[in-house]
């Protein structure tokens, strides 16, 4: 059955950003150590240890309910909001445990931005959406705000489309535009890490392509972790891929390797569509 | 402090205990008479004592339940309830005359009492008379559980309007029927019987805290209540009184009390200033006067008797 | 505009976890946070406190007055000690019973029509918009409606009514069944139980319809589709699937509407229910009366009545001090009934929301 | 067959509305039963223009403005007290309170809504006026406080609308999708930021709709006002004075059970019509807001 | 890129039922002729003409929103329920137009059963769920009902698991069991055609496998149309595959051929994960 898996090697793979070679060793940005996570009594993550390298795209794949989103949300402590959750183990961001008691969650989340599966624009104007992050951080200077909004929208490849309608409601944008708006909004807080939970699952092929392009560009400056159900997408955009199953990390490695020559049988079965 | 039932078992105030209140502070004009059962009965409490009436549709004198009710009303038990309700009973001669009047009318109508009674007797009208009628109805219903006597309180005028259109059987009235009302009754073909049930003294009340006044003259009342009245403050009546706004409370225009008062005091029925708190519900007026140091109001004697603790009755000088 | 902000080098250089600068703004945020939370919390506890003050002061006044005698006797205009709420309880029972009888089938029927059948045409749109408007009409306006339509019937009937004036006929009512002896149903109804029940029916119909609509809407369309796909007709689908599943929601709505109706005073005051009443509708004040004069069951809807809130209103404005305590006892009885009903609604809501998950 | 039966049920609501309109108009604008209607005797000009209301006196005047003024005064006071408290309570319940607290408090507040308004009226008359208003305004500030006054009535009506505002606003707040809150937090907001900048603005339409409904309720509130606000139709903005509202007038008339046909009786309908129109307007406004509110997320 | 597509040929393909050869001509069960379908003004299906052969599994694939479900639902007129829809063209079931004015929709739906994407058990007992169809059809005989229920559950491979708990609530079943219950419920009305809209999309791999087995068995007696997003699933269970795109039927053919050698470029792009 190896031949089936290897067939993915034929997919067009874009060169890595800045012409870097894939094998070059990367500096770790985030590291999880023996992380277990519980919703009440139900354990959702089992002993996850992995390294997420800096300025690269790491894809999390696995069947539904395997804990991808849960893991992603531990990275910026979004799970704190849910009652009755707890964890053991550590998550280090640049070497510091983000679950330390003296860590300010609010500040952490400014550094670790997040884009959700369903786009979640605030029912405000486009400008106010993007300006939200800087504003809650206390920025009042109008010019500065405007410049941050503009540059964020530009980086999210949305500026041209919305330039003339900055004060219209964000709800009037198309699905793909809304998703890019959310990315711009996350960029406006100037994070170092961007977590994306199936950012293109609700989008049409054209919008999906644009978001993928965007991820590809962003990884020059950001560390990106992306959850996706779409094997092809993972293959296209990521540098590294982690395969989760039932709350455990089965395998992590170079995307190329995972798709062409997985170490684990389960990974192979999943990728070749044996289940899921 | 809530009072348990048992401790106040004998709680109902009877008319007889009258105005035995503590000596009142405040200015009293010469010749002023305080309202009390005696002064009202003897007619010395002038000009505000007046008779109370019951108007009976003669057609209902055929109904045994109505006959039974009226006979009870004018029985000695019924007569006692008049006093108990805070009014003054008729003197014996008057009372006998009423009983005879009723007997004659019943005979004339050809109605007769019956063993098993049921049905309804509809009563409405004066809120002044209502306490007597409800008391009678309440006692009566204990004897005849199947007879209903719902008692409405639409005011004398309101009662007559219904009475003269045949909506009700008996009308409580705190004044005599007017010519216009007689005409209405005639048109509708309603013949009626006028019966006196007791005597009421219209009482002028103020708040017990109003220690500057204990009596008032008819002249002053007119000054306060006439349609062109300029009186806004107590000091407008008498410079010695406080320089505070006077809050007036009185019955509404459908009431016999209003008509009687305006006629006696202002000289013309319905002639009254209109910028006062008016209500057909005397309890509202009681609450109003009791709740305001600068209030002045008027209503039937019974409502004063019930609330002696909260109100102060003024003596009236003719 | 300005040039794109320089990103990568600075971010990379920035200290990993919380920059001190952000911490400064955070302390400020925390203060606001607390103040705001405490203001909001204060608002809730203020409301709760007021309710407690009300309940405590009422209950305190009712102590010693709320006893079996109070529950089992009729009103007394003169003796607070002898006054009882029986007439009000029975009157409320009759009025509310009839109200339920009219309002629930009509309300649920209307909701089913609007949710399951109604096409999106102008008439149905009007009905929908109109419903929420009706729900906001002051109850006293319903009182006038009831007074004019049910109590007086526009002054058409009766010996002095317009029908008599125009045609010379006198219609005073019509005869009911001969079985229980002749009984005249009066026209116009006058201030009777039926008028009150019909008025309250109109008053709570919008509430019931809207609540039932919500309940029906909460039933996932897939349930209907599944039933239809099995070859069930639309009505079969509604009867066997939709209504049973919506019952808890509908019940909650109905109970809440009923508890509103029980406390309503103004519309019944408008109907003229303020009359001093010391008897039960149809003279049925105990179970044994049901066997001794069963015709009371038919007479009751056409009998004069009073209800609990009106009795309370009557007592509370009595000038005799002791009636205050009588009123308090009445309020406690009324609140107890409301409490039981609300509790029931909550129970149903919780029970079914646990068991039915889509 | 069944469908038409159910349709008839739905038509009852239309019939009710028509009934209300016809009944209100029947004695005020045209007469169903012969005789003159209210506005045939009293010009609308006098009704809406004159500043004196004395339908029950020898010298009759029918200027509804004093009643309107009283109504607005009471509803205004109720709004000023009830709306903010209700909204803040809603925010607390939806954003801060533990589910357990919410489960306890919400039904409790629903009971607050279920207490007959008569009880509130006496609470105002026997408690608020003598023990709260008098000591403060008269004792400390030296203002004259009437025994019946608009303020006490307004305050209890305000208390009465708290549950309504709270419950409807809470629904609106909870309808704000969780994802929006998460988006807020993910951008580094504190809870306060998320509340004030994301959730409340997103729920504005729903909150405003609840406000309008509550005000409409306050305008239509009857028994509490009858008991506590007095019966003197005067134009005043002094909340410590006794006033008369439209609803209080209507009850006053019907407590006396004014006989059909008299002009006072007809004025009942004219005032009722005015009241109906005002609340209708409020309801339509609130509907309109609700409608906008629904559009936001879909 | 042909090599990518052809890689699917490596997937295990089960033999067709009864050892029939794939190429053998089949009798058409359903035929759609120039079918256009509109939601209000929006056209969701454009001129669909296709034949669905008897006693075989036909899979409908295509990106989200392409009209698969819409087409499926026209086959038993479930779209009638949605307001403002209309169609042109014809759908023939055994040669008769099901949209004819004299066709009884209720009877039609008994012949053309449907299983939805999300399992939709009624909040009743397991027995009542399955007995519902025969009951609304007027069957009252208790013994007959019981036997129908039993045989339907057996055919849906659920009997063993629920045998002892027939009167417990169907809501207490697991997702996979619920889905099989819905299939049993559909079978109880004794249909000729079974429409399945992504019947396994919400299920775990084990449940999915059981449902696929079931479909494989059922096709001996039923004509089955299945919508799926899962290419591998389509490849595994279907005899014929139809590819939809933006409301149009791009291509239909033997599953083998569609996955190994599609005629259209769009089909190939979709199957190889170029978009979607
Ligand atoms: N708020 C929650 N409370 C309790 N359990 C939860 C909660 N959120 C997720 N879970 C459970 O935790 C497990 C992992 O869920 P998670 O959302 O991380 O899966 P996932 O891999 O993202 O799946 P999908 O691809 O479907 O989004 C699942 O079993 C899920 O049911
Ligand atoms: N009830 C409806 N009203 C209006 N438009 C609809 C409706 N249902 C579907 N559509 C539209 O019709 C088109 C086809 O929808 P359909 O549900 O058939 O897609 P699908 O292929 O099943 O997609 P998916 O795989 O996501 O289920 C889509 O553009 C959809 O938005
Ligand atoms: Mg997920
Ligand atoms: Mg679909
Ligand atoms: O006695 P009255 O009610 O008519 O004043």
From TrEMBL, chains A, E:
GO terms for molecular function: ATP binding; ATP hydrolysis activity; phosphate transmembrane transporter activity. It holds the Pfam family ABC_tran. It comes from the Bacteria. Transmembrane segments: none annotated. PROSITE patterns: ABC_TRANSPORTER_1, ABC_TRANSPORTER_2. The keyword Transcription does not apply. InterPro entries: AAA+_ATPase (IPR003593), ABC_transporter-like_ATP-bd (IPR003439), ABC_transporter-like_CS (IPR017871), P-loop_NTPase (IPR027417), PstB-like (IPR005670). GO terms for cellular component: membrane. Residues 30-271 form the ABC transporter domain. Keywords: ATP-binding, Nucleotide-binding, Phosphate transport, Transport. GO terms for biological process: phosphate ion transmembrane transport. The keyword Transport applies. This is Phosphate transport system ATP-binding protein. It comes from Planctomicrobium piriforme.
TrEMBL record, chain C:
Keywords: Membrane, Transmembrane, Transmembrane helix, Transport. GO terms for biological process: transmembrane transport. The keyword Nucleotidyltransferase does not apply. The keyword Cell membrane does not apply. It is found in: Cell membrane. GO terms for cellular component: plasma membrane. Its main location: membrane. It is a multi-pass membrane protein. InterPro entries: MetI-like (IPR000515), MetI-like_sf (IPR035906). PANTHER family: PHOSPHATE TRANSPORT SYSTEM PERMEASE PROTEIN PSTA (PTHR43470:SF5), PHOSPHATE TRANSPORT SYSTEM PERMEASE PROTEIN PSTA-RELATED (PTHR43470). This is Phosphate transport system permease protein. It comes from Planctomicrobium piriforme.
UniProtKB/TrEMBL annotation, chain D:
InterPro entries: MetI-like, MetI-like_sf, Phosphate_PstC. The keyword Transferase does not apply. It is a multi-pass membrane protein. The chain crosses the membrane at residues 64-91, 111-133, 153-173, 194-215, 267-285. Residues 68-286 form the ABC transmembrane type-1 domain. Gene3D superfamilies: MetI-like. The keyword Lyase does not apply. It comes from the Bacteria. One of its GO terms (cellular component) is plasma membrane. Its main location: membrane. One of its GO terms (biological process) is phosphate ion transport. Keywords: Cell membrane, Membrane, Phosphate transport, Transmembrane, Transmembrane helix, Transport. It is found in: Cell membrane. One of its GO terms (molecular function) is phosphate transmembrane transporter activity. Part of the binding-protein-dependent transport system for phosphate; probably responsible for the translocation of the substrate across the membrane. Belongs to the binding-protein-dependent transport system permease family. CysTW subfamily. This is Phosphate transport system permease protein.
């Amino acid at each position: 059955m190896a031949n089936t898996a290897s067939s993915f090697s034929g997919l067009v793979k874009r060169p890595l950003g800045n012409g870097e070679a894939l094998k070059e060793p990367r500096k770790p940005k985030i590291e999880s150590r023996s992380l277990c996570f519980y919703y009440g009594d139900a354990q959702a993550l089992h002993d996850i240890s992995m390294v997420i390298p800096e300025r690269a795209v790491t894809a999390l794949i696995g069947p539904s309910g395997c804990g991808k989103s849960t893991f992603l949300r531990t990275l910026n402590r979004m799970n704190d909001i849910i009652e009755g959750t707890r964890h053991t183990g550590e998550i280090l961001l640049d070497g510091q445990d983000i679950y330390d008691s003296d860590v300010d969650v609010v500040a952490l989340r400014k550094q670790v931005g997040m884009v959700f599966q369903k786009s979640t624009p605030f029912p405000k104007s486009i400008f106010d959406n993007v300006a939200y992050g800087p504003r809650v951080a206390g920025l009042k200077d109008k010019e500065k705000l405007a410049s941050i909004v503009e540059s964020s929208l530009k980086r999210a490849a949305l500026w041209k489309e919305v330039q003339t309608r900055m004060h219209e409601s964000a709800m009037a944008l198309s699905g793909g535009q809304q998703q890019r708006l959310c990315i711009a909004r996350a960029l406006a807080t100037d994070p170092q890490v961007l977590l994306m939970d199936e950012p293109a699952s609700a989008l049409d092929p054209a919008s999906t392509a644009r978001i993928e392009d965007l991820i590809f560009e962003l990884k020059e400056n950001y560390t990106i972790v992306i959850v996706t159900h779409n094997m092809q997408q993972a293959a296209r955009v990521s540098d590294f891929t982690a395969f989760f199953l039932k709350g455990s990390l089965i395998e992590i490695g170079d995307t190329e390797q995972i798709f062409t020559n997985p170490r684990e049988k389960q990974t192979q079965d999943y990728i070749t569509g044996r289940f899921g | 402090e809530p009072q348990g039932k048992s401790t106040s078992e004998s709680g109902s105030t009877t008319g007889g205990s009258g105005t035995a209140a503590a000596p009142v502070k405040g200015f009293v004009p010469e010749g002023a008479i305080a309202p009390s059962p005696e002064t009202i009965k003897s007619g010395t409490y002038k000009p505000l004592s007046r008779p109370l009436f019951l108007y009976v549709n003669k057609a209902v004198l055929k109904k045994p339940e109505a006959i039974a009710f009226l006979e009870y009303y004018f029985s000695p038990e019924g007569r006692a309830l008049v006093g108990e309700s805070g009014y003054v009973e008729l003197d014996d001669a008057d009372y006998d005359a009423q009983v005879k009047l009723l007997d004659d009318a019943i005979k004339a109508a050809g109605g007769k009492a019956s063993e098993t009674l049921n049905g309804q007797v509809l009563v409405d009208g004066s809120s002044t008379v209502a306490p007597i009628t409800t008391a009678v109805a309440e006692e009566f219903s204990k004897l005849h559980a199947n007879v209903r006597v719902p008692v409405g309180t639409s005011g004398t005028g309101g009662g007559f309007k219904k009475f003269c259109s045949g909506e009700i059987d008996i009308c409580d009235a705190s004044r005599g029927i007017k010519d216009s009302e007689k005409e209405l009754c005639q048109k509708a073909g309603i013949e009626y019987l006028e019966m006196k049930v007791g005597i009421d003294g219209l009482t002028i009340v103020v708040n017990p805290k109003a220690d500057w006044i204990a009596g008032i003259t008819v002249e002053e009342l007119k000054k306060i209540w006439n349609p062109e009245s300029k009186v806004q403050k107590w000091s407008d009546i008498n410079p010695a009184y406080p320089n505070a706004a006077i809050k007036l409370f009185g019955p509404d225009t459908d009431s016999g009390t209003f008509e009687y008062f305006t006629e006696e005091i202002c000289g013309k029925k319905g002639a009254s200033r209109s910028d006062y708190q008016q209500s057909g519900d005397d309890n509202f007026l009681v609450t109003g006067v009791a709740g305001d140091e600068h209030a002045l109001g008027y209503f039937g004697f019974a409502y004063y008797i019930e609330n002696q603790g909260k109100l102060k009755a003024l003596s009236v000088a003719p | 505009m300005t040039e794109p902000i320089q990103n990568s080098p600075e971010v990379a250089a920035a200290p990993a976890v919380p920059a001190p600068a952000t911490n400064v703004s955070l302390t400020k945020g925390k203060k606001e946070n607390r103040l705001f939370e405490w203001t909001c919390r204060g608002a809730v506890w203020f409301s709760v406190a007021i309710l407690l003050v009300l309940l405590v002061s009422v209950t305190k006044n009712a102590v010693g007055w709320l006893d079996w005698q109070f529950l089992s006797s009729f009103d007394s205009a003169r003796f607070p000690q002898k006054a009882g709420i029986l007439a009000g309880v029975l009157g409320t029972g009759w009025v509310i019973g009839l109200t339920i009888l009219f309002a629930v089938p009509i309300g649920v029927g209307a909701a089913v029509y609007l949710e399951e059948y109604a096409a999106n045409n102008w008439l149905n749109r009007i009905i929908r918009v109109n419903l929420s408007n009706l729900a906001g009409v002051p109850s006293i306006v319903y009182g006038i409606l009831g007074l004019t339509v049910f109590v007086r019937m526009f002054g058409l009937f009766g010996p002095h009514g317009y029908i008599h004036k125009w045609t010379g006929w006198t219609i005073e009512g019509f005869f009911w069944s001969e079985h229980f002896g002749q009984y005249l149903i009066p026209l116009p109804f006058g201030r009777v139980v039926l008028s009150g029940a019909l008025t309250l029916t109109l008053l709570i119909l919008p509430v019931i319809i809207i609540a039932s609509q919500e309940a029906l809407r909460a039933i996932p369309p897939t349930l209907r589709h599944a039933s239809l796909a099995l070859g069930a007709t639309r009505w079969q689908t509604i009867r066997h699937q939709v209504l049973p599943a919506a019952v808890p929601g509908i019940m909650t709505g109905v109970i809440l509407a009923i508890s509103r109706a029980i406390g309503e005073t103004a519309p019944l005051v408008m109907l003229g229910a303020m009359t001093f009443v010391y008897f039960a509708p149809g003279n049925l004040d105990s179970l044994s009366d049901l066997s001794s004069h069963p015709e009371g069951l038919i007479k009751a809807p056409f009998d004069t009545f009073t209800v609990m809130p009106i009795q309370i209103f009557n007592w509370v404005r009595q000038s005799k001090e002791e009636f205050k305590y009588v009123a308090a006892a009445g309020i406690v009885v009324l609140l107890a009934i409301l409490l039981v009903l609300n509790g029931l609604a909550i129970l149903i809501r919780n029970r079914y929301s646990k068991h039915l998950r889509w | 067959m069944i469908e038409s039966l159910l349709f008839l049920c739905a038509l009852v609501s239309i019939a009710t509305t028509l009934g209300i309109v016809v009944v209100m108009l029947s004695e005020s604008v045209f007469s169903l039963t012969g005789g003159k209607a209210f506005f045939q005797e009293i010009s609308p000009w006098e009704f809406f223009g004159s500043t004196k209301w004395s339908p029950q006196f020898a010298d009759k005047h029918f200027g509804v403005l004093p009643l309107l003024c009283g109504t607005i005064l009471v509803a205004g006071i109720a709004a000023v007290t009830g709306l903010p408290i209700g909204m803040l309570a809603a925010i607390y319940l939806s954003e801060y309170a533990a589910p357990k607290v919410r489960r306890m408090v919400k039904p409790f507040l629903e009971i607050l809504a279920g207490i007959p308004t008569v009880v509130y009226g006496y609470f105002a008359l026997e408690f608020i006026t003598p023990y709260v208003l008098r000591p403060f305004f008269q004792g400390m500030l030296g203002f004259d406080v009437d025994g019946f006054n608009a303020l006490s009535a307004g305050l209890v009506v305000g208390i009465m609308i708290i549950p309504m505002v709270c419950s409807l606003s809470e629904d609106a707040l909870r309808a704000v999708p969780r994802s929006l809150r998460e988006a807020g937090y993910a951008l580094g907001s504190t809870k306060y930021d998320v509340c004030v900048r994301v959730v409340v603005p997103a729920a504005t339409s729903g909150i405003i709709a609840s406000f309008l409904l509550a005000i409409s309720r306050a305008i239509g509130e009857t028994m509490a006002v009858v008991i506590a606000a007095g019966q003197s139709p005067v134009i005043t903005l002094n909340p410590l004075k006794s006033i008369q509202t439209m609803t209080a007038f209507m009850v006053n008339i019907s407590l006396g059970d004014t006989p059909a046909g008299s002009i006072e009786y007809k004025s009942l309908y004219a005032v009722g019509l005015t009241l109906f129109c005002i609340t209708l307007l409020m309801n339509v406004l609130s509907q309109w807001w609700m409608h906008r509110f629904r559009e936001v997320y879909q």
